[in-house]
Structures are given as C-alpha cells and as structure tokens.
Please model this.
Amino acid sequence: MADKDKGPRKVTSFDVARVAGVSRAAVSRAFTPDASVSPKTREKVYQAAKELGYRVNYLARSLTNKRSDLVGLVAAGLDNPFRTLQIEHLAKALLARNFRPILLPTSQEADTSTVIGQLLHYAVSGVIVTSDAPPTEICEQCAAEGVPIVLINKGNDIPFVDRIISDDRMAGHLAATHLIGSGVRKPAVMAAPAISYTSRRRSEAFIACCKQLGAEAQLLQIRINDYQSGYDAAGELAASGIDGLFCANDYMACGVVDRLMQGRGRNDTPPLRVIGHDDIPQASWSAYDLTTIRQPCDFQAEQTVDLLMSRMAEPDLTARVEFTPVTLIKRRTA
Model:
C-alpha cells in the first residue's frame, strides 16, 4: 500500500540500459551531443527511452557537467518575419545536433546584464546573437565564463568570437546592377544605417556600385528598418523623381509597396522599381510579388552551428568570419 501511495517509480537511465541491452554509459553517450556511439546503439537507446517514457534531466546534468545542453538564442526585432524565420532555422539546426535552444528576446534599449544573467544561470553551452541585438557586453561576459559565442550579421570584431555575415556587398551589387540594367536613372536606397550594421554595408555597396555604373544613388535614411518606417517614407517618393529603390530588408519594402499601391489595382506594378532583401515568405505573396535578395536562413543556420560546435571543441581558435551567399530573386516589382 505504501508503494502505491508514492505513485509510479521514476524511470531511470538504468531502466533504459536494461531494456535496450546496453550499458548505462552507452545511454549517457546516446543523449550527449557528438559523443562516440554507433547509430545502431543510439537508435536502440532512443527506442527504449520512448517505450519507457524516459526523459533526460538536462538541468540536473548541467550541475554535474558545469554545462547544460542549452544554447542561448539572443534576438531582437521579432516583429520582422525574417527574424522569426531565422530563429526557426537556428532552433532546428541546434535540435538536429542534440542541443536545446533557449530564446532570450532583447532590444536596443534592453538591459543586457539581465540577458547575460539568464544565460549564465542556465549554464548554457554556447550563445548565438542575431543582428540588431547589442552583443558587446554579452560577448565579454561569456568569454570570461568560457562560453562560446557566434554573432550573426554583426560588425563587432571581438577576440575568440566567431561571426556569420550575409554577403552584403554582393547584395548591394546585385540590386544596383539589376535596377540600372532595367533602365533606372535615379536610384535610391532606403535604410537605417545608424543602428544597423547590415543596412550600412548594403547601402554603401549599393551606392558604390551605382556610381561605377554611372548613376548617383540617393540614401533615404529612416529611423528603424521596419514596415511602418518604409510605409511612412514612401509617401514622399512620388514627388522625388526616384525611379528605382533598394530597401535594406523585405519588411520595410512591404511597407513601401503598400503605400505606393494605394488606390491602384491588385495586378498593377508599382510606379517605381522596388527591390528588397531577405526573401521572407510574404515577398512571394501576390499582394507584393517582391523582387528581392535571398539570404538563405537554412544554410546560414548550419554555418552558425558548425562554428559554434568547433569553438566548443577548440576554445582558443582565433576569431573567424564566414559569409552567407546571396542570390537575386526576380519578381514583379523590379
């Protein structure tokens, strides 16, 4: 009767080992990223765990190993569909390597020390910081704690911190050559270069390429790279004489297109050529049919996790930078 009052006995790794016909050490290796274990043994362990309802207590394991299987994803600007897509692919890439992502939203105005405290409280194995999040203090504190970190689309050059950067120079070149080649004579780029590393690089590359092609490109500076800023700024485009526009991201470009298309038919083309950047799902919607520069989130996520894992294995490697390739996707707007 006393045993019944205690409820069902908790399944342990010893139970999994017994059912799978392997050692307890093999069970531990099967649930440890990059541990040496054969695919056949791993499959037997996973199957036994599923049958028994066994779950690894990763937080308890972290108390023993000093590191959990958690990887912190520090992200800002989650209203941007590209950021959501980016986080989704990063999470999938981490899960595929048996890491557990933990999302920590932040912003330009956020108290970074709070984010750092949360990351280190969970004894994370690594940290990934996406663009538009403030990384410097996070990097310094994580480095002091020996926690590997990878930055995505950030310009900060920090010792022992690796970076993945979209090929923004190529993006500016692709946008400029396509617009000028389509007959544009008064090009412009819309961006918030003061707060965004990627916006600054894309704008500079676009303006430089336009100049090489014999056209003087105008920089239309906005406060932030979001839909509303694009929508508001587009109100002055009609009177400006600009006939071709490169937007630093698709989110902003969608706002521009919506403003330009007010009062027009659904199948009309915008009064000027518009190119975005990122190729978010909305870019292919019939309401936009937006020509854009594709930044492949799936490939970028794999690059990021590869760098993070190699940094875990060799913490003293010099800082590395890898570039994510981009491609032009032609649609109705340009």
Summary: The radius of gyration is 24 Å. The mean pLDDT is 87.
